[in-house]
Structures are given as structure tokens and as C-alpha cells.
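Q: I'm writing up a methods section and want to include an example of the input and output format. Could you take the sequence below and give the corresponding predicted C-alpha cells, formatted cleanly so I can copy it straight into the document?
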Amino acid sequence: MTMPTVARLCYCPVRVDGGGVTMSAARLNGYRHSLVVAALVLWPDVGRAGGFETEYPDNGARALGRAGAFVAKSDDGSAIYYNPAGLTRGTGGALYVSANLMSYQASFQPDDRKVSLGNRLVSVHFEEAEQDVPVFVAPFLSYRFDFEGLPDFDFAAGVYGPAANGDREWPDQWRPTGATDDLGADAVARVEGNRQRTLVPNGLIVVAKPAQIFPTASVAYRVSPTLSIGLSLQNSIVIAKISQGSGGAYPGQAILEVVDLFAPTGVFGLQWAPLPFLELGLSARPPIYVEAKGKATLRKYAECGAPGVDGSCANGAPGAAFGEPWPLSGELNLRNADGSANDGVTMSFVNPTWVRLGARFVDRDGQGQERFDVELDYIFEQSSLHRHYALDFDASHVNLPASEGVGTTLPMPDLKDLRRYQDTHAVRLGGDLAVIPGRAFVRAGLGYETGVSPPAYTHLDFPGTDRLTAAMGLGYRFDLVELDLGFSFSRFAPRQVSNSDVRLVDVQTLDREKWEVVGNGGFEANYYVMGLSSHWSF
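A: Here is the clean output for your methods example:
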């Protein structure tokens, strides 16, 4: 956006002036454009943006304060993501710098583990587990520009990540707090120090640090004074570190570090004002097929509470004290058929298709200044395309147990970490009120979205239940700078799962039905998000 002019105050979905600048200004803007585009390419911190998509509404403080009801308005630098047709609302050059600070608060109360001991059934009780990363920062950077010789076209370049948390850390195992038998008697002494009875590795997620980055180049075209179309061409870059527990006779943890540097995609957008007080918006993106390659490390848990430096346990060494974690010690080696080491792995998944539709009612004064607007959006995400994470290991065998040389080897199967996501539907309602027309604004919004995860596949990597969001924000326009501040709170519906199909992988058997179920329990999650955006006009 630029400083208030008669053209801007119209707030039609397209620019209504000629779009030209003087020759000297055009040359000066060209130098600025080059410097800003270079900064976009070299900006070093964007790799921290990431996560699976739209866990909260949404990128950018202005949209955040409206609970994401922004596809028809879409009038700042975030248009390259929301609706690239919105680029035609501005004139000249404009640098957009934004960041969301989010606090993701989540917990999981595991159900008891049942252990048969002779003629008694012992229930091992566990402590509630909590997410352990207090704040995550997600930046968004873009630069919009135009050319004197192309008055009906507008361009932009930018880089951003999804509206999601890209840093999750959970306990690697559930911590036992007590044990009782089926008569109600204390049974801690009957299970203490026994790894098979007390160790339950976190088979949902231990660490998830997925960074998904979208370098973007956009163009928008003013078809008529009331109609604009736009296109953002993008590349999806994924850099991820993920760890997850495994079970069986050799319980442990799988750690994946993978990268996918090229997965092309794009966003199409349209804005149309059929009436002076009514504006419509549409944007859509096709699915993204990610194939990230890297290395896998399989670590195992020690057989005692305090293994030696080399990971070994002396004969008779005691197990972990009740309530204390079992330590990781040593690796399970991945090998080719000829015995050579091979830790290569490929992780494949699909980002969903999404479509956004919006209708905006706008009230303006006699000078064309907006007094208030109300927008209603509908968002569809075809998340059912994401059935699982496919894990294809380059190695043909895994060495059991980990030791020098080749021990007992078993075939290393390719795995599917099941999700079976459902398509989601969201409704967002939000708007702005001009406190000082053309200068100061307050805004608010509400949103609701259906859950992506079926109960049996509820996980800890992404909150998957129905979500309700409340948001508010404010903005102020100086002559050359616009500042926006937004806040939102998202509450995910609590879920108690009793029919989970989330299981601990056991490389010793390919029969998934024999793997231990670890996803039963109570899930809760909230998001607190604050966004700060600045828009600098040149």
C-alpha cells in the first residue's frame, strides 16, 4: 500500500489511476526494486517458517486480526499468498515485512498400559505430557512493484512459510506415575526396573522441526476497473528434522533429517467488484507433492538405568527407577545386502489443494474513504490427499542388536506413517472499522474449521480437531508507512481417543496388527498468536 491518494481511497479491487510515475522516479524505483529483490533472495532467517498448513488463521497481522477473512480484501504484501489479484490495489513500490509470534500449548494424557502378570492385570499410570517449545516466530517478506510501460500490471516477489508452528518437542517416553493391579492394590514393585513393562516410547512424535518455505514471484493484471486476476509462481522447499519412538524387543527412536529443494506450485487469484459496495474474491492452489531425501538414524534404549560410556549394561545392572526415563544408548545399524552401511531415506507426502472464496461488503464516505467493511470467507482444503507419510529406506536390512560387526539382521521394510486426513471446511467472518478514516482502524473476526484428523489417527505433530478462533487487531497509516498489529486465540476441541490406530513400529514383524497401540488418551491444544506487520511505500 502507498500513501493516501484519491486513487487509493476508492478501495476498489483494482487501481483506478494510470499507474504511471515520472521517468526519474521510475529509474529510482528500478534501483530500489533491484536492492529489495536481492534482499529477498539473501534473507537468512526465513528457514524458520514452516509446519503443516493453516493451523491458525493466518499469515500477516492485518489478516490475523480479521480471523483470516481476507481473500476479497487482500490489500497488503500478503496478497502473494492470499490472493495475488490484490496486488493491483497499490501503486509504486512497497516493502512488506511481517512476523507472527505464536505460543502453541498442547497436552496429551496417555491411557494406562495394561500388563498381565500371572493371574493379575496391572495398570501402569502415566504423567500428562506437554509441548515444550514456548514461542515460535514465522516471518513473511514481500516486495511489490510496477513499471511505467505496463500500467495495468503489478508484480511482487516474496518468501514466507505456512500459518503453522514449525517447532514441536515432546517427551521421548511416557513417564509412569504409579501402578495398581485389578484389585486396586499398589503394584509398583511388580513392574519397577522392567523395561518391557514400564517403557512406552512416544510413538506419536518426539521432535518435529519442519521448515516449509515458499519463494514466490507474482504478477497481477487489471482486466477492467472492477476486475483483476493474479498468479503467484512458487517453489516449495522443505527442510525437516523429525524423531519418533519405536517398540518391540528393541525399543528405540527413529530420527530423520530430510530436504526437498524443488516442488513447484502456485496460487491463482481473482477479485471482482460487481457493485460499488460488494467485492468478491477467489484464490486456489493445487496440491504439492513433496519428496524429501536425507538420512535416518535408529537409536535404541538401554537395558539398564545407567549404561556405561560405551552403552553397555553390566550383568545385574538395575533398570531405571520407577518414574525415571530410560536412556537412549547405541544405534541399530541400517545396511545394504552386502553388509555396507546405508542410512539413506526418502519421506514423501502431499500438501493439500485449497480453495478460498470471499464476499466483502464495504461502506464508504463521499470521498471514497472506507468507513467499515465486513467479509465472509469459505475455505476448502482437500486434506484427504494426505493419507500418510511414506518412509522409503535405502537400506535393505537392519542390524539387531547394534554392535560392532554384523549381528542378527532383519529385512528393513518401507513404512507408512498413517494419517488418513479428512477434507476440511472453514468459515471466517471479519472486518475493519475506521476510527479515523484513512488513518486508524480497529478490526475483529471469528472463525471455525472442521478437524483434519479422524479420531483413530489423532497425533501430536499437528492438532487435528475442530477449531474455533477469535481475533482482534488495529492498524495505523502514516504517510509512507503502515503498521498493523493482530491477535488471535484458537481453541481446538478436546478429544478423548479410545480406538486409536496409532502404533509403535516394530521392525521385527511386518504384521501391523501386532504393533502396540500408543495413541489412546486425551488430547488438548490452544494457539495464541500475535502478528506485527509493516508496509513501507516508495
